[in-house]
Design brief:
- The chain is α/β, with parallel strands linked by helices.
- It folds into two domains: 248 residues, Alpha-Beta Barrel (TIM Barrel); 71 residues, Non-ribosomal Peptide Synthetase Peptidyl Carrier Protein, Chain A (Orthogonal Bundle), CATH 1.10.1200.80.
- The protein has 14 helices and twelve strands.
- The strands form three sheets. Strands 3-4-5-6-7-10-11-12 form an eight-stranded parallel β-barrel, surrounded by seven helices.
- A hairpin with a 2-residue loop joins strand 1 and strand 2.
- The chain is globular and about 60 Å long.
């Protein structure tokens, strides 16, 4: 397929993002996604284009208590020259302790604090997207993290949503708190927790946050193609983008983003044969990370994303979803028509989880005040690493 030419990059679009001492070129960040952004997937994406690739979310309490499940997720590829971790926490002491451990013992170069998770098991305990409602608690946590990271020269950023719902927005206050606390940047997913992943992301809110703070703002939400990222930067003035669901089954999106930010022609869409080669590379990386049996089981969930829209055949599609080893994967991939063009109808189409709007589960009386100090959030970090 012939490559198309991207529009000239607007003067409003920067080709580099500065996070403290880190230079992120192009200004593209891979969002941490539970069960997806392990070291193998991050390397696969890095091989497509430069940027910043964030480890799956882990809990601060898990780090401090040396929980085996948490530490098993804290694995980096040898080629990962910038180690970026997203940390979840509800207690300033635990968060500060975890940041110190990550910097001193694991060589982490960037810490992102998650205040955007909309999952009910998180918000009903006051964590994730519920926590920014408690402004003083948010300020305590973020300030503690920044202070803990300062001796190591490690930048701290935060990620949040618009708020709990349309009646309880928090993102402007969160931006002010992030700036006052010394954060290097703030990422905004342009949806409320009540929206979950449904509806459309509010890019105008990203623009309002850009006007509200002086630190860099990264926009997140509805970035399905490289052109979407350019449109977001031009429309909002944000300093960079965070890409999540748009790269599921499409790690070459980072190649497209690198070309777009450089003002280069858009690379041709991959044929089914090229997609099969990417699947094989993904399987190889997972086998190296987890062992062949576990790695190929992990690859199964990616198959539907990789093959979305292609004519594959029900039997082959089902067999790829049950693949057990690299030899079996090779046999199945050889069944595919290597010359089949990429299904253009899939361009710009939402990928991954979507769902529908829902009421946000919150602790009793959570909305009564915006302080948060003294709240009993002891159960908010149990069993949610990667969530």
């Amino acid at each position: 397929m012939t490559a198309s030419i991207v529009s000239p990059v607007s003067p409003r679009v920067t080709a580099e993002l500065r996070l403290g001492p880190l230079r992120v070129t192009p200004p593209v960040v891979l969002a941490p996604m539970a069960g997806v952004t392990n070291a193998a997937f991050r390397r696969l994406c890095r091989e497509q284009g430069a940027g910043l690739y964030v480890c799956e979310m882990i809990t601060s309490r898990g780090v401090v208590e040396q929980d085996s499940k948490t530490l098993s997720m804290l694995v980096f590829d040898p080629a990962e020259d910038v180690r970026s971790v997203q940390l979840y926490g509800v207690d300033a002491g635990h968060v500060a302790g975890a940041v110190r451990i990550l910097c001193a013992e694991h060589g982490v170069d960037h810490v992102d604090l998650n205040f955007g998770c909309p999952v009910p098991k998180v918000t009903r305990r006051g964590g994730g997207a519920a926590l920014p409602w408690k402004r003083r608690l948010l300020a305590d946590i973020v300030s503690a993290a920044v202070r803990a990271a300062q001796p190591y020269g490690v930048p701290v950023t935060i990620k949040t949503r618009l708020g709990i719902d349309d009646a309880h927005l928090t993102y402007l206050d969160a931006g002010r708190i992030a700036e006052d606390s010394g954060c290097a940047a703030i990422s905004l997913h342009g949806r409320t927790a009540a929206q979950h992943y449904a509806g459309s992301a509010d890019w105008d809110a990203v623009a309002r946050l850009v006007d509200h703070v002086t630190i860099p703002v990264l926009g997140n939400g509805d970035l399905w193609e490289a052109a979407d990222a350019l449109r977001m930067l031009e429309r909002t003035g944000c300093a960079g983008v965070v890409v999540g669901r748009g790269c599921l089954g499409r790690p070459w999106l980072f190649r497209d983003l690198a070309a777009a930010f450089a003002g280069l022609p858009a690379p041709p869409l991959p044929t089914l044969g090229e997609v099969a080669a990417t699947v094989r590379r993904h399987g190889e990386l997972l086998a190296g990370l987890l062992g062949e049996q576990r790695g190929l089981r992990d690859l199964r969930k990616h198959m539907a994303w990789y093959l979305k829209g292609f004519v594959v055949g029900q039997e082959t599609r089902a067999a790829l979803g049950l693949v057990e080893d690299l030899a079996g994967l090779d046999l199945l991939l050889r069944r595919l028509d290597p010359d089949q063009p990429f299904p253009a109808g899939e361009l710009g189409v939402p990928r991954g989880r979507q769902g529908s709007p829902r009421s946000v589960a919150l602790p009793a009386g959570w909305l009564d005040d915006t302080d948060g100090r003294g709240c009993d959030l002891a159960g908010a970090e149990l069993g949610i690493s990667g969530g």
